[in-house]
Amino acid sequence: MRIAVVAAVTLALSFVAGGASAAQCGRDASGFAAWKQSFANEARANGIGPRGIDALMGANYATATIRADRGLKSFKLSLDQFMAKRGGATIIARGKGLKRSNAALFASIEQSYGVPPGPLIAIWGMETGFGAVHGNQDMVSSVATLAYDCRRPAFFTDQLYAALKLVDKGTLSPRERSSMHGEIGQTQFMPKNVLQYGAGNLDSSAGALRSTANFLKAHGWSAGGGYQPGEANFGAIQAWNDASVYQRAIALIGQRIDAE
Fold first, then answer.
1. Residue 124 in contact with residue 131, Cβ under 8 Å?
2. pLDDT tens readout for residues 33-49
3. Of the four listed, 80, 94, 105, 188, which is most buried by Cβ atoms within 10 Å?
4. 177: helix, coil or strand?
5. With contact defined as beta carbons under 8 Å apart, do 214 and 197 qualify?
6. How many CB atoms lie within 10 A of CB 178?
7. Which of 25, 10, 1, 243 is nearest to 154 (CA)?
8. Alpha carbon distance, N-terminus to C-terminus of the chain
9. Whole-angstrom distance, CA of residue 11 vs CA of residue 21
10. Domain 78-131+188-258 belongs to what architecture?
């Protein structure tokens, strides 16, 4: 359906001004189909092409994603509890071996981005067990569901626009597989971060690690600076994940890996 010029301009201005979808959010699947149509109209007005719109219209309400989003409890644990639950000791032990066996890669990354191996290996291990864990959700469906959901619509509206742009460009498949919140690759990049900081194939260890280092550098990482709480580079780790216990775990695991 052709959108009237006035309506298109109004929708475009509302997106630029507010950064969030004007489509009505919901708390269950009942309004998802209507929301998709409304969002598709806005997306067209904001430059999303046919491939992205088709991917959106093919999305389903992701009940598993909503269930996972409501069940995030591990971030409330103490640091010791969190390390035990997430296998911190195993990540450290395996991480030391990976640091040695991939020494040339990590040296190249540190030269380019200033980020040492420890925090990169910590993130890699925490996110996917060094690439062993692969999400099996429909990425566009997961992100669209969370953009529609009333809990955090503004954040996930930005992620959905990024996902649809990546589909338009052919960077991602319309039915790309992801983790529960739309994270992809070996270090679990959200779609907006793929657009902004992707530095290679995120399904490969080298591409994922370079992209992660690029993210940290873009968020203030300074070569040679410390990265424990209170030190210069801890703020870049905080930008990676909002949960305090996760941030401290990355710093601790990274420190023990880099100490060798």
1. yes
2. 999 999 999 999 999 99
3. 188
4. strand
5. yes
6. 26
7. 25
8. 62
9. 9
10. Orthogonal Bundle (1.10)
- Check: CB of residue 106 under 8 Å from CB of residue 120: yes
Calculate the alpha carbon distances from 5 to 10, 34, 35, 40, 160 in Å: 9, 22, 21, 16, 24
Pinpoint the alpha helices (H) of the chain.
Answer: 5-18, 32-45, 50-57, 63-70, 79-85, 88-101, 103-113, 117-128, 139-148, 153-169, 191-197, 205-218, 234-240, 244-258
Domain boundaries along the sequence of the chain: 5-69+139-178, 78-131+188-258
Backbone angle region of 182, left / alpha / beta, with phi > 0 → left and psi within -120 to 50 → alpha: left
**Best CA proximity match to 106, nearest among 209, 253, 257:** 209
The C-alpha atoms of residue 15 and residue 47 are separated, in whole angstroms, by: 12
pLDDT in tens, 90-130: 999 999 999 999 999 999 999 999 999 999 999 999 999 99
pTM: 0.88
- Contact between 223 and 116 under an 8 Å Cβ cutoff? The reply is no
Residue 2 DSSP one-character state: P
Give the model confidence (pLDDT) of 208-224 as tens digits.
999 999 999 999 999 99
Q: Which helix (H) or strand (E) covers residue 133, if one does?
A: none
